[in-house]
């Protein structure tokens, strides 16, 4: 089904009048509203599937032509999306994908889920949001709702997007509606999905909040309205900053325990038996993904604009960025203690995804660790059942088969990502030495003298 076949309705593109909001709300309620999702990645595609399942016509706009070709063929590329569900929705014409923004004229609700990276100086890079906003503006018409889901600093929706959209001559709250509803996707989480994860919604005004809340309520179980788009933006960056700060705390505890020759995992496990006043966080070889390494810097940058220094956030980022270097240092310490020269040492990395049981290696600490080891002269290979190939910056590697030979011929095995499907007893049986950064060997019946924890 081609995008050109989409019809707005017998009345065509309706003109602005006092009944604009009621018409849009009616379309949302009876599911005749056409939903556009800009950016069909880890956030956008699962959301598009949920909306299509609920009976809405969904048009996905994606600049990656390879993704569009796959979707047009009913082929899935996102782990949290069910292959068969996607295929059925595409074949039924409920999900249409395109690279052409011209289809935006037929869309009633535009949901934007594009990347928000950082520059090399750790400042916000809003080029994708700005570009999409300009493209949407070219086709903006009365009676549309625009929702930004991309994580960003408080003020982006009103200060950046709104000024671009109103270049169309249309006015927010009068002609169109604008809201921010931050994504809360947790890749690989089987319990909490797009549908049953509470959805925070903030509008640039009361009409925008009403329309956006009605829109999300048709497919998401619980809606949490807040007073403004800016508040909704701060909710998300706080959530991820909370995690970053607590991860940094246990990582710093890990560095201290290493100096004190104490087992940090034992200390934490005992501490977390307290039934109140504490929440479990565990050490890591670094932070990865598109949230924890990036989002706190958006808040830090915005605070500086207001002449306010966010000390905790800056310190947390500094500690978490130290961890890959600490892993390298501990690996080389282990090699030296066993009389193995660092130069040309053979090191097998287990897991390169940024978290267990996912195929996403964006910002993964494994990439930084591999580079550090290679720069020091080590011969490094990796195994990851979810990531068959890495192609990023100067790294271009493929996953090796996890054979007895590969394991036993390695001077050191470093476990970075603790995928559940891995056979840790098998790894432990054949490995010479293991640096376990995730305590993955805890329950395996292997010679613990082989294993050194982070």
Entry keywords:
454 residues, alpha/beta, Rossmann fold, eight-stranded mixed β-sheet, five-stranded parallel β-sheet, 15 strands, disordered N terminus
Portion of residues in beta strands equals: 5-15%
Question: How many structural domains?
Answer: 2
Structural class: alpha/beta
Q: How many angstroms does the end-to-end distance come to?
A: 53 Å
What is the mean predicted local confidence, pLDDT? 92
CATH topology of the largest domain: Rossmann fold
H/E series: HEHEHHEEHEHEEHEHHHHEHEEEHEHEE
Number of strands: 15
**Tally of separate helices:** 14
Quaternary structure annotation: single chain
CATH superfamily of the largest domain: NAD(P)-binding Rossmann-like Domain
CATH architecture grouping of the largest domain: 3-Layer(aba) Sandwich
Radius of gyration: 24 Å
CATH class descriptor name of the largest domain: Alpha Beta
What percent of the residues sit in helical stretches (DSSP H or I)? 25-40%
The major sheet is characterized as:
8 strands, mixed
Unreliable stretches: 1-16
- What's the overall geometry? elongated
Strand order in space, largest sheet: 3-2-1-4-5-6-7-8
